[in-house]
Write a structure and sequence with these properties.
With 258 residues, the protein is an alpha/beta fold. The chain contains twelve helices and eight strands. The chain binds NADP nicotinamide-adenine-dinucleotide phosphate (NAP). NADP nicotinamide-adenine-dinucleotide phosphate binds next to α2 and α5.
């Protein structure tokens, strides 16, 4: 066993001061890389299987509100958001203790999975305001570009395909298109439909994000059908052949082209 001779307080302080030039740059470097390391962790899939997700909902309207109710019922922690969060208190009280209310920024920070369900014209602003909070997260996007509501930017997004356009606006390739072509009333009333569930076409480029989206579609009471990549999600953009919202999984699958 080796012993280190005790050193006096002055000598200790002198050694500590001498070490500052060495340690300070390391601390600065650690402070710089820590946020990067934290956001680089694959967030949702790092958790134990069957553990509930933390879901942040941006746009708690007809679609976002219906999905919030399904996912709280499935056991997830859900933060619904609004630019006027106080207006969500009644909804949160109705949904119970796993539901919380906040601003869009709080939803983006809270969720390991994010639902974006807003008028499409809000996409550019959300993408620039919440870029840091949304980085690396799994994002389910229900939002449709509609010219009469969203203006000229909708035409551009329709031309690219909404999936590709959303990924560009949000600076995020983990976007999964889902729930964009089921009417809100059907979504709210036909979860777990008997004898056969309705299908939800989904698509995206990130395999892990797709697995998470499939789980969340099932837990909402619908059958997910993976159509393909983000580019192929244009096949179920509004007005396209697969955007009927009222098919079973077998019917939808039979309409897919290779
Ligand atoms: N309705 C349908 O049948 C249906 C079906 C499939 C897909 N979609 C698409 O899904 C999206 C949502 O539809 P919805 O019917 O649920 O719409 P909605 O009822 O009008 O709700 C939209 C929500 O977006 C929020 N919002 C608006 N501008 C925002 C902004 N700049 N930043 C943050 N939040 C903003 C609003 O929240 P606050 O005002 O409280 O902040 C509002 O609650 C749309 O793109 C729609 O085309 C709709």
């Amino acid at each position: 066993m080796t012993h280190t001779a005790p050193i006096g307080r002055r000598a200790f302080v002198a050694r500590a001061l001498a070490a500052i030039p060495l340690v300070a740059p390391m601390l600065v470097a650690l402070a710089l890389v820590a946020p990067v390391l934290l956001t680089a962790v694959p967030l949702a899939e790092a958790q134990a299987p069957d553990a509930p997700f933390r879901i942040g909902i941006i746009g708690t309207g007809r679609i976002g509100g219906a999905l919030a109710a399904y996912w709280v019922r499935a056991g997830h922690e859900v933060l619904v958001s609004s630019r006027h969060p106080q207006e969500l208190q009644a909804l949160v009280a109705r949904l119970g203790p796993r539901a919380h209310a906040g601003t869009p920024r709080e939803a983006a920070a809270f969720g390991t999975v994010i639902l974006i369900s807003v008028p499409y014209a809000a996409m550019p602003e959300l993408g620039s305001d919440l870029r840091r909070e949304l980085a690396g997260k799994v994002i389910l996007d229900t939002s449709n570009p509609v010219e009469r509501r969203d203006g000229a930017m909708a035409i551009d997004a329709q031309r690219k395909g909404a999936g590709i356009a959303t990924a560009e606006y949000l600076h995020n390739r983990r976007v999964v298109r889902a729930f964009n072509c089921i009417p809100a009333a059907v979504l709210a009333s036909e979860g777990d439909r008997r004898p056969e569930r309705l299908a939800i076409p989904i698509g995206g480029d990130d395999p892990q994000a797709l697995v998470i989206a499939e789980q969340l579609v099932r837990e909402a009471g619908f059958d997910p059908v993976v159509v393909g990549s983000l580019a192929r999600t244009r096949e179920f953009d509004l007005g396209q052949p697969l955007a009927t919202g009222r098919l079973t999984a077998a019917e939808l699958t039979s309409r897919l082209t290779d």
